[in-house]
Write a structure and sequence with these properties.
CATH superfamily: EF-hand
CATH class: Mainly Alpha
CATH topology: Recoverin, domain 1
CATH architecture: Orthogonal Bundle
Number of strands: 4
Number of domains: 1
Structural class: mainly alpha
Helix content: 55-70%
Order of helices and strands: HEHHEHHEHHEHH
Largest sheet: 2 strands, antiparallel
Shape: globular
Strand order of the largest sheet: 1-2
Number of helices: 9
Strand content: 5-15%
Radius of gyration: 15 Å
Length: 182
């Protein structure tokens, strides 16, 4: 999958209302949804870390400060550098929210909770989990998870990224909205 298609899939997931822009509210809601899905309170230190990392990521993504990010802005911003400096802390913090026993690994129910709260189609989650659980121990390791998402947004081969972000509907490379939603 090329990097533009990969970015379109992630953008479509982040654009929760399908209006063609990611709003600050849509982006910040991610931490709140994962916190609720995992039963964490708003003052839980891990929720505070996730929220703070999310605010930093949003400030970087919304470079013009207008409170919304178009696909063009997102595509120009997203990639390996943005992932390494901004996205990895957010995704790592969200992973940590789902990691109930704090062992740096998610079992399938934890992984499902995380990815469902982030907006992935439920039907894709088991395939992504299986691809990430390379040793078959029933756990996804935090570093492997982050590396697979990084590979996806960088346009590198990532069967996990393709499974997580693809709704099962073909994505028109010229389309920046939700696959299968229009």
């Amino acid at each position: 999958m090329d990097d533009i298609t990969a970015k379109r899939l992630v953008f479509a997931m982040l654009d929760a209302d399908g209006d063609g822009v990611i709003s600050a509210d849509e982006y910040s809601a991610r931490a709140e949804r994962v916190a609720r899905a995992t039963g964490r309170t708003t003052d839980d230190p891990l929720v505070v870390v996730a929220r703070t990392a999310g605010r930093r990521a949003w400030a970087s993504m919304d470079a013009d400060g207008d409170g919304k990010v178009t696909f063009e802005e997102y595509a120009a911003w997203a990639g390996a550098d943005a992932f390494d400096t901004v996205c990895e802390p957010v995704l790592g913090a969200l992973f940590d929210l789902a990691d109930r026993d704090h062992d740096g690994r998610l079992d399938l129910p934890e992984f499902t909770t995380l990815r469902t709260a982030l907006g992935n189609p439920v039907g894709n989650i088991e395939a992504a989990f299986a691809a990430l659980d390379a040793d078959g121990d029933g756990r996804v390791v935090r570093d492997d998870y982050l590396a697979s998402v990084r590979a996806h947004v960088s346009g590198e081969s990532s069967p996990v990224g393709e499974a997580l972000y693809n709704s099962g509907t073909a994505v028109d490379p010229a389309h920046s909205g939700h696959p299968g939603r229009d």
